[in-house]
Amino acid sequence: SYMFWKRSELTKYYFFGLIWLIAFLALGVLNYDDPSQMAFFEHRAYLPFIGFLILLSGFIAGLKLEHIKILIFGLVPMLALVSYGYGLNFKNASVYWRRAVEISPHSARAHAELANVYVSEKLFADAEREYLEASGLNPQEKQVHNNLALLYIKQGLFKEAETELKKELVIDKFSVIANFNLGNLYARQGNLEKAKSYWLEAIKLDPNHILTHESLAKYYYLRQEKESALHHIDQIVIRGAPLSQEMKTILEYLKQ
C-alpha cells in the first residue's frame, strides 16, 4: 500500500508539473503578435521552468539514493557547460545580435538591431544591408527607415536620407524623432522654413523633446525673433534639462 501511495503521489507531481509547463508555455507563445520576435523574450521560459522543476523533483523522488548521486554528479557539470556555452552569446551586443540573426533569420527586429551594432562599429555597408533586409522582412517595422536615414546622413547622402525619413513618417506619422531628424536634414541643407515645420510638428507631438526646443530656439534666434527664442529656452529650463553651451551663449545675447 505504501508503494502504491508513493507512486500515486509521484503521478500527481508529474501531472501537475506537466500541466504547469504546457499551460505557461502556451501563454508565452500566444502572448506575442509577431512570432519572429519571440526568440528575444526569454522571460517567457521563467514560469514554465517551474513546471519543469516540479516534474524533475517528482522524477528524483522516485530514484534510489545511488541513482540520485549519479544524476547529480553527471547532470550538474553537463548543465554548467551548457550554461557557459550559452552565456557566450551575451558577451556583447555584437555577438548577441549576430547570433539572433542566425537563429531567427526572418526577424526584422534582429536584422535592425544588428544594423545598429554595425553602425556603432562604423561598418556602414553592413549596416545598410541589414536595415534593408529588416525593411524587406517587415515593411512596417518602426525606426528602420529613420535609422537608415541617419546612416545616409553620415555618408552625405541627403536625398536618400530624406526618402527614408518620409517612409518612416508614412509608417508612423506620430514619430517625434523622424520629424525632428527630417527638420535637421532640411536645416542642414539650408531650408530653414521647411525645417521649422517639422520641428513644430515634433514639439507638438512631444513638448518635452529638449533637442527640438534647442533647434527652434536657434531658428528663432537666427530670425531675430527674440520672444520665440526665449520661449523655447525657457521650456528647456522648466523641464529641468541643463542648457548646452550654445543655448547659454544665445541666452546671454538675447538678454542684452
Map the helices and strands.
Elements: H1 2-30, H2 46-61, H3 65-87, H4 93-103, H5 108-120, H6 124-137, H7 144-154, H8 158-171, H9 176-188, H10 192-205, H11 210-222, H12 226-238, H13 245-254
Helix pairs in contact: 1-2, 4-5, 5-6, 6-7, 7-8, 8-9, 9-10, 10-11, 11-12
Structure description:
With 256 residues, this protein is mainly alpha-helical. The chain contains 13 helices and no strands. α1 (2-30) packs antiparallel against α2 (46-61), α5 packs antiparallel against α6 and α10 (192-205) packs antiparallel against α11 (210-222). The chain starts with a helix and ends with a helix.
Q: List segments where confidence is low: pLDDT < 50 over at least 5 consecutive residues.
A: 1-7, 31-40
With helices defined by DSSP (H or I, 4 residues minimum), what is the helix count?
13
- Relative helix content: over 70%
Strand content: under 5%
**Number of DSSP E strands:** 0
Outline of the structure:
By secondary structure, the protein is mainly α.
Descriptive labels:
13 helices, elongated, 256 residues, disordered N terminus, mainly alpha, 0% strand
